[in-house]
Amino acid sequence: MSEPAPEFKEGQAVWVEGGDGNQHPGVFVGENQNASWFGGGASALVVHAEADHPEVVSIFRITPRDE
Fold first, then answer.
1. Are 19 and 8 in contact (CB under 8 A)?
2. Count of beta carbons in the 10 Å neighbourhood of residue 20
3. DSSP assignment, residue 59?
């Protein structure tokens, strides 16, 4: 049984865990609605400070960030 996805709000500051295990600051944009179409797990759209477009990441790779 999997854990339920955490709740995030649009514009919320988050930490995104990268493939190297380090955390990078980002902003939660919204849930990835296409994930269910392709049978993937829960995912989200986040924007990183150095990027100009959202990235799709697993919802389990993001955690809230206190500002």
1. no
2. 7
3. G
More reliable by pLDDT, 53 or 47: 47
What does residue 52 show for φ and ψ, rounded to 5 degrees?
-110, 10
pTM here? 0.75
Q: Tell me 58's DSSP state.
A: E
Q: Domain containing 26 — which CATH number?
A: 2.30.30
Q: Over the stretch 14-52, which tens digit does the pLDDT of each residue have?
A: 999 988 999 999 999 988 766 555 566 788 999 987 777
Q: Is 3 among the domain residues? A: no
Q: DSSP assignment, residue 61?
A: G
Q: Is-contact 46 54, C-beta < 8 A? A: yes
Domain span holding position 30: 13-64
